Amino acid sequence: MRLCMFHPAEEPLERGWVGRIDGEHVTQLAAQTLQSFFTGGGAAREHAMYPLAGVRLLAPVLHPSSVRVFEDQRTFVFANPAAICGPGATVPQNEASGSEPQGALALHARLAGIVGAGDGVAGWTLFAEWRDPRRDPPKDRDFALGLGPVVVTGDELDPDGVEVIVRVDDDERLRARLDGFDWAAARDFAAAGTRLHPGDLLAAPSLAPVEVPRGSRVEIESGGIGVLAHIASRG
Predict the structure, then answer these.
(1) Which of 51, 132, 168, 214 has the fewest CB atoms within 10 Å around its CB?
(2) Quick check: helix, strand or coil at residue 32?
């Protein structure tokens, strides 16, 4: 399945609705969030149908209880759930930079697994980790985490070998495959000694960072997932 959070383009909703994308249409599902959809076993009553061209896609998980960003198979850092932003967002200025001159940002494109019921990985989406190279860690990466545009479940996507393309102002800057990451092992490692909740995010190791000048339009594209587009704020 291809799942999303959305609202009709002419009826903005902060949280949005859960939807299933079928071709050029989105079917609204009777669940409040993707987390509750997964908790309910991945099934829900169907409501209205909307043309895909007439809706706005939102971050598929807006308030995860935790975000773990893996640097390798057994090393991760926690990231800021409040920094999640969805498709089409303008990446905000890093507030820690104050009035200093604004330099380029660094984009780390990743694949993120969404935890479902029973601690399993229920689906995958694109994950844009933005960093400000002028700031010292951890504040260099605390202000924007892009997510979207949709979540694709395992019946339609094999996460090993997903090709990702990064474009800056329509110029292709990176093309690589995200492969070799053991999602089941990462899930088990994350869950050891604690509890994972539906909607928790596990982000795989990134591709090579891409420098993004302020004011640029950026697209991260995967043939299996779609295009996650952002604009880097000028400050």
Answers:
(1) 51
(2) coil
